[in-house]
Amino acid sequence: MDSSCDTPDIPLIDFGPFLHGSARDRAQVASSIDAAFRCHGFIYLSNHGIEQGKLDECFEWSRRFFGLIEEEKKKMQSLHYRGYSGVGNEKVREHICMKEGFGCGNPEDVSQPNIWPPEELLPDFRAFMEDFFQCTILVHHLLDSLSLALDLSSTDSLSEKHIHSLFNFDLLHYPAVPTQLLHSGNIARIPPHSDFGTLTLLFQDNVGGLEIADLGSANTEKSAEFEKYGSFKLVKPVLGTAVVNIGYLLMRWSNGRWKNTIHRVVGPPMREASTNSDNPRTVEDTTPERYSVPFFAVPDPETVVEALPGCWNIDVPKKWKPMHAGNFLRRKRKGIYA
Ligand SMILES: O=C(O)CCC(=O)C(=O)O
Ligand SMILES: [Fe+2]
Fold first, then answer.
1. How far is the CA of 153 from the centre of ligand 1 (A)?
2. Which of 21, 150, 291, 325 has its CA 20 to 30 A from that of 272?
3. What's the Rg (C-alpha) of the chain?
4. Ligand nearest to the CA of 188
5. Is the ipTM beyond the 0.90 threshold?
């Protein structure tokens, strides 16, 4: 970890003053976000402008969707990260992912059409999910805060490179599984990985299980090696907050200033074993189900990602060559977690 990072905890940042405050408030929030992403790559964000009621409703829809019979869900499968993906469909480095998902993209993205359940099966599901795309507004505010932290000119501004907002989000359901299965070695909820876009907003229920790499614990930035040698710390659910993290492209764009921290999903922390039960256990037999909703932002495909002004100078040279975002995203989407 950077020597200026004096806290091991993921900072909780109140975004209210950025959305509603003075120029000075905005600058202060921008500077705290910048510092947090430099140290941790992850923040909790409160007062982010997305109503709790909307988020509760989204999780309710997700429960209803995954409660459909398998046969109906399978009719919504596709090969392009839209629609349904069944439990165990994804494999990452020999690990089977014990999750099912439903992917939605920007309704305006005609190159990747969405797949919806028939209206008679889940009336109003589609309308809700299309509206949930409003999270895009928060992504743009966050990009504005990062542009402010770097003092970028309006032509360099990050929001201007996300004009088409070709973002996507997933409803994720991790079904309840025998705990032993998750310890058997080749089955995981999500193995260690980092996201490949710019920013991810993550909404999670109160079950827990998301963990991020403890950056001081292994001398590597590779997910596969971290899996063997690194240690992880819990990103416990905090009511009323979104978790926000940096993806590979924004790490690279910032010349490594903001960290795209490796994370994974495991079973939640064990509860205390009951002492007065007839059958005391130290390990829960069943890992409870969990729901989450990650919302992924990516730059416009024609964007060239190259170290931003303020992220390099004569002493801190550019670490990477310029890269075409669209080509990179096409390659990454073929093999989702790296
Ligand atoms: O479910 C979660 O908490 C994390 C999901 C995630 O990391 C991902 O989909 O990239
Ligand atoms: Fe992720």
1. 33
2. 291
3. 20
4. 1
5. yes
For the stretch 175-186, pLDDT in tens is 999 988 888 878
Question: 276: exposed, middle or buried (C-beta count within 10 Å: 0-12, 13-18, 19+)?
Answer: exposed
Domain ranges of the chain: 12-334
What's the rounded mean pLDDT across residues 301-323? 96
Ligand 1 nearest-atom number relative to CA 210:
3
> pLDDT-derived band of residue 273, with 50, 70 and 90 as boundaries?
very low
Q: Of ligand 1's atoms, which has the minimum distance to the CA of residue 337?
A: 10
Copy the structure tokens of residue 193.
């990985």
Average model confidence (pLDDT) across the chain = 91
Q: Ligand 1 pocket: which of 172, 206, 211, 332 to mutate (most atoms <8 Å of CB)?
A: 172
Q: Looking at the CA of residue 209, tell me the nearest atom of ligand 1.
A: 3
Ramachandran bin of 115, using left for φ above 0, alpha for ψ from -120 to 50, beta for the remaining angles: beta
pTM of the predicted model as reported, rounded to 2 decimal places: 0.93
What is the per-residue pLDDT across 83-138, written as a single tens digit (0 to 9) for each?
999 998 877 777 889 999 999 999 988 888 999 999 999 999 999 999 999 999 99
Ligand 1 centre and the CA of 204: distance in Å? 9
| Burial (CB count within 10 angstroms: exposed 0-12, middle 13-18, buried 19+), residue 87 | middle
Pocket test for ligand 1, best of 241, 263, 296, 333 (most atoms within 8 A of CB): 263
Picking from 167, 216, 200, the residue whose alpha carbon sits closest to that of residue 5 is 216
Ligand 1 binding pocket (C-beta < 6 A) is 172, 190, 195, 202, 204, 210, 263, 265, 292, 294
Residue nearest to atom 6 of ligand 1 (CA): 294
Residues with CB under 5 A from ligand 2 (ion): 195
- Residues 188-215 have pLDDT tens digits of 899 999 999 999 999 999 999 999 998 7
CATH number of 12-334: 2.60.120.330
